[in-house]
Amino acid sequence: MGKQPNLYAFGDIASLAKTLRTYILQCQSAGFERHGLFKVAVSGGSLPSTLAKALLEPGQSGPEDVVDFTKWEIFFADERAVPLDHPDSNYKLLKEELLDKIPKEIGQPSIHPIDLKYLDDVQEMADQYQESLMQSFAAKDSVKLPIFDLLLLGCGPDGHTCSLFPNHELLRESDAWVAPIEDSPKPPAKRITLSLPVVTHGTKIAFIATGAGKKEILKQIFDTDEGRSLPCGLVNEGGADKQAVPVAPSFMFLALRKSDFDGSPL
């Protein structure tokens, strides 16, 4: 079994967002030190709204509490094969919840959406998105896997993350950085997703699990063999098998549950 992540649980979004902000800024500083940029992959769902609360509301105003969006590169951990203004688009969600609310005077991040030319061909869409990763992280023949500074992921009530679903063949994909899926059990059926090896290869990984029904799936992921075989469990096992550094853990879960949790590590 891999090293267990740092698990934090909170009774409200505001408390979660405060801790998430601190974590993201620590990861940002580490990314700037490594290569002068902060390369992030984000999921959809409730995550963009939580990110807005974490990143756009006033922090402590110290020198270490500054979000420098001008040096951010944001990729999508998964995306649906729909137009960018479609209600199912993760890009639309991030744009409305976060990007459109960033004050113009502090600058905008670099965003990598899908290529709309390939909405009818998800294999080609995945290949093209992989090309955009190669341009940022180096050619695929020179590095085995891209290394994100941080992946911000959700956890579905069935244990899925990105567009990696329980018992799906994509969980066995070991070569592609970005893979197509045409039979997603959750609509829309056609999507692209980062592959499991790319997700677990990130320098830092954080799951933000909010909403009703997450307590049981988290318990299953951490405590049962069946849960450890779910996509979130596989990321937990693979991504947590790293040496955590003193400043920011390599892997953490932030979970919003009932008020019987106080925000301390569990």
Rg estimate, integer Å: 17 Å
User: Strand percentage, roughly?
Assistant: 15-25%
What's the total number of strands?
Answer: 10
**Helix proportion:** 25-40%
With strands numbered from the N-terminus, the spatial order across the biggest sheet is 1-10-9-6-2-3-5
Outline type: globular
What is the chain-wise order of helices and strands? EHEHEEHEHEEEHEHHHE
| End-to-end gap | 18 Å
Task: Give the secondary structure arrangement, pairings included.
Layout (H helix, E strand, L loop, with lengths): L5 E5 L2 H23 L2 E5 L4 H10 L15 E5 L1 E3 L9 H8 L12 E2 L10 H16 L12 E4 L24 E4 L9 E4 L1 H5 L4 E5 L4 H10 L1 H4 L2 H9 L11 E6 L10
Parallel strand pairs: 1-10, 2-3, 2-6, 3-5, 6-9, 9-10
Antiparallel strand pairs: 4-8, 7-8
Helix pairs in contact: 1-2
Explain the overall architecture.
32% of the residues lie in helices and 16% in strands. The longest helix has 23 residues. The protein is built from 8 helices and 10 strands. It has a 7-stranded parallel sheet. A 3-stranded antiparallel sheet has the order 4-8-7. Helix 2 links the parallel strand 2 and strand 3. With 266 residues, the protein is α/β, with parallel strands linked by helices.
What tags apply to this protein structure?
266 residues, alpha/beta, 7-stranded parallel β-sheet, 3-stranded antiparallel β-sheet, 10 strands
